[in-house]
Amino acid sequence: MHEMSVALAVVDQVAEAAGRSAGVTAVRSVRLQVGELAGVVPDALAFSFELACAGTLLEGAELITEAVPGRARCTPCAYEWAVGMPPRLTCPACGATHTELLAGRELRIVDVHWEDGPPHASTREPISEER
Ligand SMILES: [Zn+2]
């Protein structure tokens, strides 16, 4: 199951980053860019993510996915289009098949929110009264 390996990779990466930052007690949310052509089903990913988080710092974390539409550019005529689903990979302007995928294969963690312990008590220095 592709989604499960993606979820495990995301959890690994976030847990490692959280482990490097001192005092992280829990991860609240992870924002992930998911390309339209990455072959990931969002529902299946959300389910796998929940399983992958169990017993880690990410337990209970929310997965927020941002869909990235697929875009392609024609090499001969430089026309750009949204490839859609199922993806259209021949140029709609000139019919060329020599095209380049610009976006849509992303699987990228863009943002992580975590908690690093209780909010710090006020540590303001006492104000020295100047006379
Ligand atoms: Zn073209």
From TrEMBL:
The gene is hypA. This is Hydrogenase maturation factor HypA. Transmembrane segments: none annotated. Pfam families: HypA. The keyword Zinc applies. Gene3D superfamilies: 3.30.2320.80. Belongs to the HypA/HybF family. InterPro entries: HypA/HybF. The keyword DNA damage does not apply. Keywords: Metal-binding, Nickel, Zinc. Ni(2+) binds at residue 2. It comes from Streptomyces achromogenes. Involved in the maturation of [NiFe] hydrogenases. Required for nickel insertion into the metal center of the hydrogenase. Zn(2+) binds at residues 74, 77, 91, 94.
